[in-house]
Design brief:
heterodimer; A: 235 residues; mainly alpha; 3 domains; 7 helices; 64% helix; B: alpha+beta; Chloramphenicol Acetyltransferase; 2 domains; five-stranded mixed sheet; 13 helices
Chain lengths: 235, 429
């Protein structure tokens, strides 16, 4: 029995070519007695290396300062005051840094929004504890919009196809323009939430980022421009 | 060495090449290799154990355990040989520090095959082959009740080991001039590491007469020929990884050289040094003919008595350094580990170790159907390659601890395109 793709002879009874993975099938060969395998069959990974131990240590390292702070706070003040901020902050940091390590597939498109949500959770806690009214009108829309832009960049970089450097130019160009718009949104939210007068400072980053973004898109579109730039700026 | 060998187990300093291996060892990786003999009939574990018990006292420098001194590791003879074990789906399972402190070799059996896995600090491929041959010969004697003469490298279990079998030949043969360390900027294949560090072993079985005809036609050795195919495959892989030719790196294959052939000696310890053979893809495309000739001439230049002496002398000088000698072992291990990570494997893309055509006594040959040599993967790159021949078959083993079978596919399909008949076997899951 031979692999039609690699041209190598295969052991009798194997289901796929070990070199290219092509499935081996021939109706006349179904009755062939399989050759002895060169090694004992895989027994389900008795040697699987688990990161559980390391992650447990990391979890304990994160938990320790929280526990100590809570204990000190409770002992001195009789209730959770400042230690709450520490606890929530450390929890958010843990979610952002350590949570992905518990999974074998660490897809940033999934874990980035989770980390951002953890950050927003910290803002909400601080807002509630300090009696502020800025979370819903400011932190949530500002953080949410930033998360949406970053998530779009991650998803587009990860899941679109095409020659990488041009694709990156398109995506980053679009992201730059979106960031310009985001600056305007932030200024507007600051104005309505904290009554800061509109100085229209956000127009400057908007104009600059839009121009930079458009330039990146034009360079990505125009092959002659790319060649001309390469000719002048190669190193 | 201990003077009273009868009453206390023999102990030995590590030879110069072995010093680095305990330091470089890590939880999931140890420098080890395996030599396997396949017989015509299923293995009888009891007889195998008896054969090992008979043969172990003849090889007090092989059936050993690794122990820690204040300043250096050392090997200590085992008074009782290890138990033979059933082989697992995973060849060359990492030998942890605790494992080698119990015993630095493993004897395994599976169906018709017995295999010996050696921690590289104990011996090299040639020494390992002498042990494995003698052990297999003793097994044949006990299993089939035939007389196997002690020729072709088979040692007599009843004779006492000669003192020159324990010598560190590096110390004896080091010269006054040390070669500068090799260039480090070579291509290192990458791949997604198997999460459980599973070691894929892909064996390509080639017809030796066909291979010899082809190498003879080109006027080169089998090692040079296979190295050229390997270099071509590595260049093909690098071209896929890096489309810009000027960004590519030199491609080098490390060929272990049995120094006993150059300096004589009968040592059972490590006595091997490497020749780094390679080409620079930035200089342009190479035809296969060009590659074969380049490898052939580079090997001829590198593998000479004087040049090889210059290559292993720096390591001997380091060992002789008085300051280094008095550094405690723990600290020394840290430094050696750093040196290994920085220099050890980075001078070549991978190793190709060829033990050559195995010669066995005629009385034993009918019972042996196959002889194999498998080298473990590198610590920081996924591949390694080992070759051995028995009768009219040549077994090329490519090991890999990454998911993608890139090198073996490029290598074996290249051989098929050159007109070789290649049969592939693997331990794929």
């Amino acid at each position: 029995m031979y692999c039609v793709q690699c041209g190598v002879e295969l052991q009798k009874g194997v289901s796929k070519c070990p070199l290219c993975g092509l499935r081996v099938y021939h109706p006349d060969l179904l009755t062939e007695t399989p050759e002895a395998r060169p090694y004992p069959p895989y027994d389900g990974g008795a040697e699987h290396v688990s990161r559980g131990g390391l992650l447990l240590i990391l979890t304990v390292l994160f938990a320790l300062p929280v526990i100590v702070c809570l204990m000190v706070d409770l002992r001195l003040r009789g209730s959770v005051t400042w230690s709450g901020y520490v606890a929530v902050g450390v929890l958010a940091l843990y979610i952002a840094l350590c949570l992905p390590l518990w999974f074998s597939r660490r897809n940033p498109a999934v874990f980035f929004p989770i980390a951002m949500a953890a950050g927003l959770g910290v803002s909400l806690y601080v807002c509630l504890k300090t009696g502020g009214r800025w979370f819903l009108p400011f932190a949530f829309p500002a953080g949410g919009a930033l998360c949406l832009i970053a998530e779009a960049v991650i998803v587009l970089l990860r899941y679109t196809v095409g020659e990488r450097r041009y694709r990156v130019l398109y995506i980053l160009g679009g992201a730059a323009i979106a960031l310009g718009g985001y600056c305007m949104l932030v200024e507007f939210l600051l104005h309505i939430t904290f009554q800061i007068p509109m100085y229209w400072w956000s127009l400057y980053p908007l104009v600059v980022l839009t121009l930079v973004g458009l330039l990146m898109i034009v360079i990505a579109i125009s092959s002659p421009l790319r060649q001309s730039l390469h000719k002048r700026f190669f190193i | 060495m201990a003077e009273n060998a009868e009453r206390s187990p023999r102990w030995m300093r590590l030879d110069n090449a072995a010093l680095i291996f305990p330091a470089a060892q890590r939880r999931h990786w140890s420098n080890a290799f395996r030599i396997a003999f396949t017989f015509a009939d299923p293995i009888e574990p009891d007889i195998l154990q008896r054969a090992l018990r008979r043969m172990a006292p003849r090889f007090p420098s092989v059936v050993v355990r690794l122990r820690r001194g204040m300043f250096w590791h050392y090997l200590e003879e085992l008074t009782a040989p290890p138990s033979v074990q059933a082989d697992t789906y995973q060849p060359l399972k990492s030998m942890t520090g605790a494992d080698v402190r119990r015993c630095a070799i493993r004897v395994l059996y599976y169906q018709n095959r017995m295999a010996v896995e050696f921690f590289h600090a104990v011996t090299d491929g040639t020494g390992g082959m002498v042990f494995a041959k003698s052990f297999a010969a003793e097994y044949v004697r006990l299993r089939y009740q035939v007389h196997v003469p002690c020729t072709h490298g088979v040692k007599d279990p009843d004779e006492q080991p000669a003192e020159d079998e324990f010598i560190d030949c590096f110390q004896k043969n080091a010269g006054p001039i040390a070669a500068p360390r090799d260039d480090r900027n070579v291509y290192r294949a990458r791949g997604v590491t198997e999460p459980d560090r599973f070691l894929h072993v892909t064996t390509g079985v080639l017809d030796t007469p066909q291979l010899l005809r082809e190498t003879k036609r080109r006027g080169v050795t089998v090692t040079a020929y296979l190295t050229a195919v390997l270099l071509q495959s590595l260049m093909q892989m690098q071209a896929e990884d890096e489309p810009r030719p000027n960004r590519r790196r030199p491609v080098k294959v490390q060929i272990p050289v049995n120094l006993r052939q150059l300096y004589g000696g009968n040592t059972m310890r490590n006595f091997v040094a490497v020749a780094n053979i390679g080409v620079d893809p930035r200089l342009g495309d190479y035809t296969f003919e060009e590659l074969v000739q380049l490898v052939h001439h580079q090997m001829a230049l590198a593998i000479t008595e004087k040049n090889m002496r210059m290559i292993f002398t720096p390591n001997v000088n380091d060992e002789r350094n008085k300051l280094l000698k008095i550094v405690p072992l723990g600290l020394k291990n840290i430094v050696m580990r750093m040196v290994f990570d920085a220099v050890g494997e980075r001078v070549a893309s991978l190793s190709l170790s060829n033990l050559g055509n195995v010669q066995l006594p005629e009385a034993m040959a009918p019972y042996v159907t196959r002889v194999e040599f498998v080298l473990g993967a590198q610590a920081t790159a996924p591949y390694n390659c080992s070759v051995t021949s028995w009768q009219d078959k040549t077994y090329v083993n490519i090991v890999r601890n990454s998911v993608e079978p890139r090198l073996e596919r490029a290598f074996f399909t290249a051989l098929v395109r050159m007109g070789f008949h290649v049969k592939i076997e693997s331990n794929d899951r």
